[in-house]
Amino acid sequence: MSRLPIITAPDPRLKVHSAIVPVVDDAVRRLIDDMMETMYNAPGIGLAAIQVGVPKRVIVMDLARDGEPPAPLHLVNPEIVWAADEDAVYEEGCLSLPDQYAEVSRPAEIEIAYLDYHGQALRLKAEGLKAVCIQHEMDHLEGILFVDHLSALKRNMILRRLLKQRRLNVADA
Ligand code: GNR
Ligand code: NI
Q1: What Cα–Cα distance (Å) separates residue 19 from each residue in 50, 140, 151, 159?
Q2: Residues, beta carbon < 5 Å, ion ligand 2
Q3: If you average pLDDT over residues 139-166, what whole number do you get?
Q4: Is residue 3 part of a domain?
Q5: Domain with 156 in it: what CATH number?
């Protein structure tokens, strides 16, 4: 397994639409393994393939807290088959927008269909942080970042803050 570099905004690659995976083969499993290592190292609770520059519909997640046993989740070609009418607000962050956080509103509960690590077709119902994270990752597959759910004012504030912080980091190094 190897760690892959994570792409950060405003890299145009984060805006591309990711392609369906025709078959979950060993190459896809290797991508999943590398993404898991990259996500755990970051650390993050989810990662979409496009964040490491691969425009395929592959997502990895693990919502286990410190001290809990790992709970890896691998989603290939996920589709939302049902969403609750009620929305829930959660403060989101993104490895591609380091140190930036904002409240985003999304359906509180969803059901998805997807393929797992072995190419098996499964369904999963999720609420709370799990529903938030799945929807955040599925947005990445469409080239959408959490800031795209905010007003232009808030979005530009976050993007400017990100660029300023990066300038400071460069000056520091
Ligand atoms: O690590 C992550 N934490 C997080 C917190 C709240 C809502 C969504 C997320 S996903 C993020 C990792 C990431 O950027 N995935 O694309
Ligand atoms: Ni993200």
Answers
A1: 10, 12, 28, 27
A2: 94
A3: 97
A4: no
A5: 3.90.45.10
* Per-residue model confidence as pLDDT tens digits over 78-125: 999 999 999 999 999 999 999 999 999 999 999 999 999 999 999 999
Distance 50 CA to ligand 2 centre (A): 10
For range 65-72, the mean pLDDT:
94
Give the residue among 47, 20, 42 at the shortest CA–CA distance from 32: 47
pLDDT of residue 171 exceeding 90, the answer is no
Its domain, for residue 135, covers 12-172
Q: pTM for the full model? A: 0.97
- Largest Cα–Cα distance of the chain, in whole Å? 49
Q: What's the 32 CA to ligand 2 centre distance in angstroms?
A: 16
98 Cα–ligand 2 center, Å: 9
137 catalytic residue (yes or no): yes
- Within a domain: residue 55? yes
58 domain-assigned: yes
> 49 near 33, Cβ under 8 Å?
no
Q: Is 93 in the pocket of ligand 1 (CB under 6 A)?
A: yes
Q: Does residue 167 fall inside a structural domain?
A: yes
> Number of folded domains in the chain?
1
